[in-house]
Amino acid sequence: MKDVINKRQLIIYEKYNGDVDGLLRVNEKSEIEVFENQIDIIWSVITNKLQDIKLINEKLCSKEYSINSLRDLKEVCDEETYEVFMSKIFDYESFKKVSKLLRIIKDKLNSETDIVWTRFDNPETLKAKIIHDIEKIELCDYETLEKVKEEFLPTCTYQELSISNGWGDEYLEIASKFDSLYSKINKEKENIISEKKWWKFW
Predict the structure, then answer these.
(1) DSSP 112-169
(2) Is residue 58 part of a domain?
């Protein structure tokens, strides 16, 4: 399926607290038509994806399951609806901010970038690595976050890159923001989820 779920469908799902029979009993034609004769399929997808997010939040699924689930979610939603779903993941906003920091570093790379003090052979290889990290970070991959943390350590890739290319002061600001986000993501938090409240969209 491609772009099946949209914002209007989520609003109706929430209105009936995830109870498709409630919608069918009311038999509101204008609402049923929003699902374009796929109400059972779409309703089931919404329910399943919310369950996946619940498992991710409670850390009850494997890394592979989490990544595959979120990739699939992106395939069955339009962009706005995908963001609504992803906002239900506890650390998503912080991961998004980490992604933006990595994009700043990526955008500084070009064919003339001095990478002599890094472990990479050329700027293209480093850029490809950052792009790969960004993709995983945007899927809330904690393992990739730890690898990114290593690149931010003193005398490691990003600091050496910044010093060699004349943006050391800016790097210190970027690194400071990353450290704050890293601490926030890893801060111990409660995993208590209210079945009737945590998934509410609006």
Answers:
(1) T---TTSS-SSHHHHHHHHHHHHHHHTTT-HHHHHHHHHHTSTTSHHHHHHHHTT-HH
(2) yes
Q: Bridge-partner residues for 5, per DSSP?
A: 77
Q: Are residues 72 and 129 in the same domain?
A: no
Any idea which residue has 């400071």 for tokens?
A: 176
128 and 67 housed in the same domain: no
Domain shared by 96 and 171, yes or no: yes
The reply to whether 99 falls in a domain is yes
List, for the chain, all residue ranges whose pLDDT scores fall below the cut of 70: 1-3, 188-199, 201-202
pLDDT for 57-90, tens place per residue?
888 999 999 999 999 999 999 999 999 999 999 8
What is the separation, in whole angstroms, between the first and last Cα of the chain? 25
Long-range CB contacts for residues 93-99, cutoff 8 Å, separation at least 24:
94/181, 94/184, 94/185, 95/137, 95/138, 95/140, 95/145, 95/185, 96/138, 97/177, 97/181, 98/137, 98/145, 98/148, 98/178, 98/181, 98/182, 98/185, 99/134, 99/137, 99/138
Domain count, the chain: 2
Rounded Cα distance, 8 and 61, in Å: 29
- As a whole number of angstroms, the longest Cα–Cα distance in the chain is 68
Among 170, 176, 99, which residue's Cα sits nearest to residue 140?
A: 99
* Tokens 């607290």 -> residue: 17
